[in-house]
From TrEMBL:
The chain crosses the membrane at residues 12-29, 41-60, 80-97. It comes from the Bacteria. Keywords: Membrane, Transmembrane, Transmembrane helix. This is DUF3593 domain-containing protein. The keyword rRNA-binding does not apply. The keyword Chloroplast does not apply. It comes from Chamaesiphon polymorphus CCALA 037. InterPro entries: DUF3593.
Length: 102
């Protein structure tokens, strides 16, 4: 029983399970809330970060026998997509605030 609980709370399981609340968040932001379009694109770009990080992390683990965090070039390339999404979100909300103040 304890091995089942341990595997449920393994970081890989938690990472996969965290996608469901995020997809719900995206659905709500798309359908129910007037989210600035550029910010919404940024939130969707976060999924691109996840989609890139998973295979790159698997490549680092299987081929290089290292954690993704230990391979700077791969890690930096994957983190670029997170940075891109964060900047896009910030620009979207910044533009929305400026237009609301005018």
């Amino acid at each position: 029983m304890s091995s089942i609980i341990a595997s449920l709370f393994a970081k890989e399981s938690l990472f996969a399970l965290s996608l469901f609340p995020y997809l719900g968040f995206l659905w709500l932001m798309t359908k129910k809330v007037k989210t600035p379009k550029i910010a919404l694109i940024g939130f969707y770009l976060t999924l691109v970060f996840v989609a890139v990080t998973i295979p790159v992390g698997a490549y680092a683990q299987i081929t290089l026998h290292k954690s993704l965090a230990d391979v700077d070039l791969l890690h930096g390339g994957a983190e670029f997509f997170l940075t891109l999404s964060n900047i896009t979100i910030a620009i979207g909300f910044s533009q929305a605030l400026r237009s609301a103040n005018n």
